[in-house]
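Lab notebook page, bench 4
Experiment: in silico fold of construct C2
Operator: M.H.
Input chain length: 175 residues
Purpose: comparison with the prior construct
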Amino acid sequence: MYCTDIGCNDGATITLDSPSGSWAAGGYELRASGDGIMVSCTLNIPAPATNDVFGTCTTTSTTSAASLALEFARTCMAFDSGISGVAGIQCTPIPGQSSLKLAVPGTAANLTLVLTREGTQLASESVALQYNAYYPNGQACGGACQEASATITVAGAGSAATGSGDAGTDSGPDV
């Protein structure tokens, strides 16, 4: 068996979905806090958003960074040019099918999330996280990291109208 030096960091990924699959243009702020960690991120979504958009984050974590991005679902096609060794995959974003993805460092068991657009609160949710061991080199090599995920649906996120702040929560791990 061969074990590499590939490593990983403990953390959680929170996916924020809009019921319509799209997000209104504007300036967003997402704050997450819990169990000693605080994260604050900003993201400007252009009109129209046609590619992934990356925000900026600050965090109290001293071990790794937080991140926030608008990520589009993609359709991908494999191709072979007919020339030996020239092949690949080309992926194209699908308009109107995007999610906000927040990466939070550490192993907070509970997070409180507050999402605003242009200063108007869209959601305020508490999420209970369940972590699972992840072995980047396989379990026999050791070096596990703890990873968790959750998905929140944000009502009103896809329109320029004020959101109700009422978001559904699925705090279980994505499978």
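Observations: Residues 11-170 form one domain. Residues 161-175 have pLDDT under 50 and may be disordered.
Next step: discuss at group meeting.
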